[in-house]
Design goal:
Number of helices: 8
CATH topology of one domain: Pnp Oxidase, Chain A
CATH superfamily of one domain: Electron Transport, Fmn-binding Protein, Chain A
Structural class: alpha+beta
CATH architecture of one domain: Roll
Strand content: 25-35%
Bound molecules: flavin mononucleotide
Length: 228
C-alpha cells in the first residue's frame, strides 16, 4: 500500500485505485479471482452460493455519518453516485432525517469498507447540495420504478404501514400513467461531501495494519502515517 501513496499525491487518486480494486478491477483483480478459485475447493454448493453474492456486492455502498446540531449522531448506508477530486455524491430525500442533520450541521463522514482486499476509507468533509440541474439529470437516468418509489416515499416519516406506502405508489402511477415523464421532486436530490481529510486503512498480517491520513491544510494535502 505504501507504494500507492508514493505514486499518488492527491488522495482522491488513491481512492479511485482502491475503488476499482474493490470491484476486482485494476491491479488486484487477481485477489478476487484467488478467492473464487479457493471457494471452488469448498465444493459446488459454497461456490454457487457465495460467488454470485461476491459479484453482486454493493461496492458503492458507503456508511454516511451525520450529527445534529446538539451532537446526536446517526449513520446509514447510501450509494455513491459520483466521485472526483471535487467530492463524493449521493442522492436522497431532502426532507429525510439525514437532510435535517445536514441542514443544521453541514458536515459528514463517509466510511467505505471493502472486504477483498480488506480496506477502509474514511472521508470527512463539508456537505453541500448539488445543483438542481445535476439532480434532475441523475433523476432522469434512474429506472422508472425507482422514480415512482422515491416520489411515493416521504423518507424517514412515519407511515400507517406497508399497505399505505403501496397506496401512495398507486397514486403516483395513476398521476403519471401512460408513460408520462415523472419530474424530479423538489424535495429530492444530491449532496456532495467535499473532503477535508481522508484516512486509508489496509489490513496487514499480525495486526500491523497500514493507516495513512491526509489532511487539507492551507489548500495542500498533508500526509501522516498512523499507528494501527
Ligand atoms: C445498500 C443500501 C443502499 C442505500 N442507498 C440509499 C441511497 O442512496 N439514498 C438514500 O437516501 N437511502 C439509501 N438507503 C437507505 C438509508 O440507509 C436510510 O435508511 C434512509 O436514507 C433513511 O435514512 P435517514 O432516516 O437517516 O435519513 C440505502 C440502504 C442500503 C442498505
Amino acid at each position: 500500500m505504501f507504494d500507492d501513496f508514493k505514486k499518488n499525491s492527491h488522495p482522491h487518486a488513491i481512492f479511485e485505485q482502491w475503488y476499482l480494486e474493490s470491484q476486482g478491477k485494476g491491479s488486484s483483480s487477481h485477489i478476487l479471482d484467488k478467492v473464487k478459485s479457493r471457494l471452488r475447493f469448498l465444493g459446488k454448493q459454497a461456490f454457487t452460493q457465495i460467488v454470485p453474492s461476491l459479484d453482486r456486492m454493493n461496492y458503492n455502498a458507503v456508511v454516511l455519518a451525520t450529527a445534529s446540531l446538539s451532537g446526536i449522531p446517526a449513520s446509514r448506508v447510501v450509494l455513491l453516485k459520483g466521485h472526483s477530486e471535487k467530492g463524493y455524491v449521493f442522492y436522497t430525500n431532502y426532507n429525510s432525517s439525514k437532510a435535517q442533520h445536514l441542514n443544521e450541521n453541514p458536515v459528514a463522514s463517509l466510511n467505505f469498507f471493502w472486504a477483498y482486499p480488506t480496506r477502509q476509507v474514511r472521508i470527512f468533509g463539508e456537505v453541500k447540495k448539488v445543483s438542481r440541474k445535476t439532480s434532475q439529470e441523475y433523476w432522469a437516468s434512474r429506472p422508472r420504478g425507482s422514480q415512482e418509489g422515491a416520489m411515493a416515499s416521504e423518507q424517514s416519516h412515519e407511515i400507517q404501514g406497508y399497505d399505505s406506502l403501496k397506496e401512495q405508489l398507486k397514486e403516483v402511477q395513476e398521476k403519471y400513467k401512460g408513460g408520462r415523464p415523472i419530474p424530479c421532486p423538489q424535495n429530492w436530490g444530491g449532496y456532495i461531501v467535499k473532503p477535508k481529510s481522508y484516512e486509508f486503512w489496509q489490513a496487514m498480517p499480525d495486526r500491523l495494519h497500514q493507516r495513512v491520513l491526509f489532511e487539507l491544510i492551507n489548500k495542500k494535502w498533508v500526509k501522516k502515517y498512523l499507528a494501527p
